[in-house]
Each structure stands twice: as C-alpha cells, then as structure tokens.
Amino acid sequence: SLDHILDQPLHTLHHIHSKLQACVPARPTAGPRPRGRLHHWLHRLQEAPKKESRDCLEASVMFNLFRLLTRDLKCVASGDQCV
C-alpha cells in the first residue's frame, strides 16, 4: 500500500523513480542520448547509493520533501497560480 511506502523515505524515492522511468522513452540503440533535467536526476538517483550512506540519503530525501512541501504551502497560502 502507498502508506507503507511513504513511511520509508528511500522506498518512497525508489517508488517515484520507478514511476518516472515509465515516463522516460527507451534509450535509442544509436545516436545521441536525450539530455534533460529528468534524465540527469534519474542518473544521479541511480548513483547516489554507491556514494552516500543510507542515513545520509534518507536525511536528504526528508529535507527535500519538506522543502517542496513548504514551497507548496507558501504558494497555496499566497493564492498564487503555482507551476
């Protein structure tokens, strides 16, 4: 269930990663690889467990989730059309 996933930050991020992977077109066998923010983010997400401890990754995930939540709450409170 989604509640179980949200209780664990790294599992939440992995769940988001798998959902985003479904949105990214398959890598072409030849030619340049498309570069964009999503591809860059997915690559960094795959490399992070090799470079950082689990505790550090969880802290980073929680910090960024709270940062996004705070930004969204400020946007809603101000009545702006947020994008």
Automatic annotation (TrEMBL):
GO terms for molecular function: cytokine activity. It comes from the Eukaryota. Its main location: secreted. The keyword Secreted applies. Keywords: Antiviral defense, Cytokine, Secreted, Signal. GO terms for biological process: cell surface receptor signaling pathway via JAK-STAT; defense response to virus; innate immune response; positive regulation of immune response. Belongs to the lambda interferon family. This is Interferon lambda-3-like.
